[in-house]
Amino acid sequence: MAGAFALTRPQEEVMGHPKGLYMLFFAEMWERFSYYGMRALLILYLVKHWLYSDGSANLIYGAYTSLVYITPVLGGWLADRYLGQRKAVAFGAILLTLGHFFMAFEGDGSGYQSDGTTLNIFWLALALIIVGSGFLKANISVLVGQLYSRTDTRRDGAYTIFYVGINLGAATGVLIAAYLGETVSWALGFGLAGFGMLLGLVVFVLGKSLLRGNGEPPVPAKLKQKVAGLNFEWLLYGVGFVGVAVIWFLIQYQEAVGGILLVSGIALLGYVLYESFKLDKEARERVYAMIFFILLMPLFWGLFEQAGGSMNLFTDRYVDRGGVPTTFFQSVNAIYIVLLGPIFAIAWQWMARTGIEPSTPAKMGLGIAQMGLAFIVTVWGAENFSSADEAGVLLTPVVFIFIFYLLSTTGELCLSPVGLSAINRLSVKHMASLMMAAFFFGTAGGNFVAGAMGALMGQGEGGEMTRDAALEIYWAMGIVATVIGVLVCFVSPLVKKLMHLDTLADDGEEHSTDMADAATATATTA
């Protein structure tokens, strides 16, 4: 109802932002409904339905979530060079819809060793979701930035509003789809996730005009050229389906994903540096600043994504939940963001006006430090306030899980939407989707690290995660992250200099003294 109200207003902007932002908000909201509804169920589905060990389930979870964030490199490159962001997002949404509906084929529940046919459908579903995310994820974030000029001080606020849409979808996906999947049937939960993705596709297609012509192919005539009797555009979609086949194979060999991430990450970094040498000095140094931001991603997301993996299992077994379904706790982070996101957006703008806003690297350092504190506080609570249940298992008071998600959420709000805004703002136009994809590639590394760390905890008795092993690793994670976060804050002035905010101009505008002064006055939100 709120979306319909915003999109049917006669004016070009609603509540200070273009109507296209609200269309992208709702399209992404439904995409996140499907993704997080499925994510909350995945590790429980692997352990309880497919009967994988904790260690193997964490590896599959880490490989899946990391590949979700690595495929935007291909999707971003194809959008930059040929398809444009709008067509790439629409194609990605189609693949995602198919993938989530295939997840509804759950088989007979006899385990991965006995039901090979349905297991292959499961791998196909994951592959479709992974490749679909590759075409959609980086490109829809770029479309948000294209609605604003590079020196528009509303950008951080716009990305925070967009981030609220992400997490509104995440929260409802968990509370509805994941709840039904855990308590009624896996097929129902995954099927509802597919329905949510279909709604996202419909919203995006119907809202095309609100993009104001942004995100179109750079050379439309190129897509109509014939290659082997087919339009070049259809050939590119064929590349996407070939990618599905490749990912279908890779996702079954999770240990190989780490090596692929390392090699492809080095190659991507080399390509970005190669492209940066074609730029002028200031644009090149902005690339160096963006690389710094990208290198922080594996650390933060390696810790944050414990939430859907090891922390999900920890909550299921070692937290006094009072009978509340485990998947419900996967919605806490998203609910916090819906509540706190607008407060952060207003706070950044207020601090920008008063001249006290932290720089982008300082915000990201604060985010990492808060993520570390989330683990430290959780371990402290578990070691000092746990009580035994009837079976003698020590259970952590549930309040510390809420504190864990509160600190990880405030950390996320200091790092992720701010990083999205900075990457989009600092990138030259022809590298925008590539740099956004590289940003998500850093997140991919973090997701694989998350799975690997979760697998270490699953090397306990009978392949199951033990409470003591989890707390020991969580404590180490917390200390390391807090120290690194403080160090990032310390070096933030040096990184800020590389951003050259004083000379940042809108695309197509010649730099002048007046423009430099204007940029200096308005660019503080980066």
TrEMBL record:
Subcellular location, record wording: Cell membrane
Gene Ontology MF term list: peptide transmembrane transporter activity
A GO BP entry: oligopeptide transport
Lineage: Bacteria, Pseudomonadati, Pseudomonadota, Alphaproteobacteria, Sphingomonadales
Sequence intervals crossing the membrane: 33-52, 58-79, 88-105, 117-136, 157-180, 186-211, 232-251, 257-274, 286-304, 334-352, 364-382, 394-420, 432-453, 473-495
Record keywords: Cell membrane, Membrane, Peptide transport, Protein transport, Transmembrane, Transmembrane helix, Transport
Domain called Major facilitator superfamily (MFS) profile: residue spans: 20-496
InterPro entries associated with the record: Dipep/tripep_permease, MFS_dom, MFS_trans_sf, MFS_Transporters, POT_fam, PTR2_symporter_CS
Protein origin, superkingdom: Bacteria
Membrane topology qualifier: Multi-pass membrane protein
The protein's name in its UniProt record: MFS transporter
GO cellular component: plasma membrane
Keyword match Ligase: no
